[in-house]
Amino acid sequence: MPRVEKNNRGEFMHRQLNVVLNGIPTKINAGLSILEALDQYPHPGKHPALGAIVDFQLSSLGRRLRTDCTVDTVDLTSKAGADIYRRTVVLLLTMAVEKLLPGRQIEVGQSIAHGYFFSLRDGRLGKKKVKELQAEMERLRDRAMPLHFMFYPAEEAIRYYESLGLKSKADMLWQSHQTQVLMAKVGDRLTLPYGPLAMSTDAIHHFSLLPYEDGMVLRFPDRKGRPVKRMTPQPKLFATFRESAEWNKLIGAANVSQLNRLLIDGRGGDLIRLAEGLHEKKIVQVADLIAARRKDVRLILISGPSSSGKTTTSKRLSIQLRVNGIEPVTVSLDNYYLDPSRTPRHPDGSFDFEHLEALDLELLDDHLPRLIAGEKVATPVFDFQNHRRHPTKTIPIQLAKNQVLMLEGIHALNPRLTENVRQSAKFKLFVSALTQLSIDEHNRIFTADTRLLRRLVRDRHFRGYAVADTINMWDSVRKGEQKWIFPFQEDADVLFNSALVYEQSVLTTYARRFLVEVPRGSAAYTEADRLMNFVNMFIPILPEEVPTTSVLREFIGGSAFRY
Q1: Residue 201 CB-density burial (10 A; 0-12 exposed, 13-18 middle, 19+ buried)
Q2: Three-class SS state of 49
Q3: C-alpha pair distances (Å), 474 with each of 414, 426, 451, 529, 537
Q4: Angle at the Cα of 139 (from 133 to 144), degrees rounded to 5?
Q5: d(Cα 206, Cα 219) in Å, to the nearest integer?
Q6: What does the pLDDT profile of the chain (563 residues) look like in tens digits?
Q7: Is 324 helix (H, G, I), strand (E, B) or coil?
Q8: Which residues pair with 73 in a beta bridge?
Q9: Dist. CA 80–CA 51, nearest whole Å
Q10: Which stretches within 255-411 are classed as H helix?
Q11: Are 133 and 209 in contact (CB under 8 A)?
Q12: Burial label, 392 (beta-carbon count in 10 A; 0-12, 13-18, 19+)
């Protein structure tokens, strides 16, 4: 038997692995990193590889292969690769700030204009300084600085972040109860990555910094790697985000570590009551605006993306309108969905439920004018368990003189639906879960993740969908929203933020249970694994603490309202 030698990583030098790399069966020496393997088997895309999915788990290219596996490298044209790209660009920005603004800190805000909004913790950012930061980021990129990953004692990492004044990062480490943490080092800079990073700064090609309000927007390329040149102002969206961010800071829950600290200190009940009180106050304000126009308004339109809480918002608004002497009659656009046999499809043959023509537009064109005119109309009922319109059940509706029609659904603000109704007769409300809670000073929570968690919990509970099915259709949902829903949000009279600062702590109780149902090998496993890592950051809140009128009850059950 030949003598077997070990290399300095303790691997058997002559042991080879069976690895399927980007669909090609290969033999790779045990202990070789994915990045090293790409020297022999290059990434097939025209953009640089940024990470890899190894047996359905997202990893950095620095991962060393030690068992037979399947490896698919990703670049910025995929969701996973785009996430890595954004995290790495944000790292460059924080390094540039440390160089040009020593002792000062930036804080991440909302996603806007195809990028992230950042502001200074203690002041404004002028145009000149934003330009200097962009130049410094480009210099760091062009130096092709490698990123090294290594484990550090948690106490050492905590002291490092405390020395930089990054308390939330330090607190997140303290709350994790880890003894060692994986850190990324680039130059003299250490960072705690919430997911893989690129292996070198020069893997990042396009980005831009633009002044915006009192801060700046860090913009990323599109999925084809092209710079996004056009910047469309979104003043209503930005104002809604800013208001939510200021309120979160006011109550001391601007990020995950602060939220967890409030729960640890036994202040969760107060937090829940404050968050729900703010929602109620905002709904009262919307009702008062409608009441001020009661002589003209005949149609209240409530739109928003999937799982934004439109239905609960419409029910709570109905109560406040009745307080003002206005009797709303609600019609849900969900009941006007076509049967699957008539639903538009994507090029791959899957159903396109977000398409405008997934609705029975002909029937809506007939029903809406008649309803507003006061005629009696038998409106349809959609059966979500059987995924088709109920064959016999209908809801008869006829408006009295003191009543207004409330139309609720993802397409409600699309002018195609109400083109025959005069503008003054319409009041438009856009509802979205605009999460302003961040992970820490530099890492934000994707707004869409809040809605995805809501949806997978609801669909698993009440609509007969497996979690994997919900995850697999989510990309289609998001594309449909970008095309059919978000373009109309700035046309709204009011943007209502349905996000609750504490909701991830409630949803995690359900999500942890449901996400483990996604089997390894499923196309949804990579995303389920990412979501599991995300919800594990939160200290759970028992669902019993959630008020029965909360928007969360639409997704977890136990609502005082009937759906």
Answers
A1: buried
A2: coil
A3: 21, 31, 10, 15, 22
A4: 135
A5: 9
A6: 333 334 544 545 568 999 999 999 999 999 999 999 999 999 998 999 999 999 999 999 999 999 999 999 999 999 999 999 999 999 999 999 999 999 899 999 988 888 999 999 988 999 999 999 999 999 999 999 999 999 999 999 999 999 988 999 999 999 988 999 999 999 888 998 899 999 999 999 999 999 999 999 999 998 888 888 777 888 999 999 999 988 898 889 999 999 999 999 999 999 999 999 999 999 999 999 999 999 999 999 999 999 999 999 999 999 999 999 999 998 989 899 998 889 999 888 888 888 999 999 999 999 998 999 889 999 999 887 777 888 889 999 999 988 999 999 999 999 999 988 889 999 999 999 999 899 999 999 998 999 999 999 999 988 879 999 999 999 988 988 999 999 999 999 999 999 999 999 999 999 999 999 999 999 999 999 999 999 999 999 999 999 999 999 999 999 999 88
A7: coil
A8: 52
A9: 8
A10: 256-264, 268-292, 310-323, 361-372
A11: yes
A12: exposed
Please provide the size of the chain in residues: 563
List the structure tokens of 194. 């919430």
| Dist CA 110 CA 217 (whole Å) | 9
Q: Which amino acid is at 205?
A: H
- Closest to 523 measured CA to CA, from 72, 102, 171: 72
Strands 299-303 and 426-432, sheet pairing: parallel
User: How many Cβ atoms from other residues are within 10 Å of residue 11's Cβ?
Assistant: 16
Question: What is the DSSP-derived secondary structure letter of residue 307?
Answer: T
Tokens 């967890």 belong to residue? 260
Count CA atoms within 13 Å of residue 189 on its CB side: 20
Complete DSSP assignment for 222-241: -TTS---------HHHHHHH
Residue whose tokens read 């009295």: 400
279: helix, strand or coil: helix
* Contact of 203 with 74, CB cutoff 8 Å: no
Q: Of 302, 309, 374, 209, nearest to 550 (Cα)?
A: 309
Amino acid identity, residue 37? A
Give the predicted TM-score (pTM) of the model.
0.90
Task: Convert 339-374 to b/e letters by CB count within 10 Å (16 or more is b).
Answer: eeeebeeeeeeeebbbbbebbbeeebeebbeebbee
Contact by Cβ (8 Å): 20, 31 = no
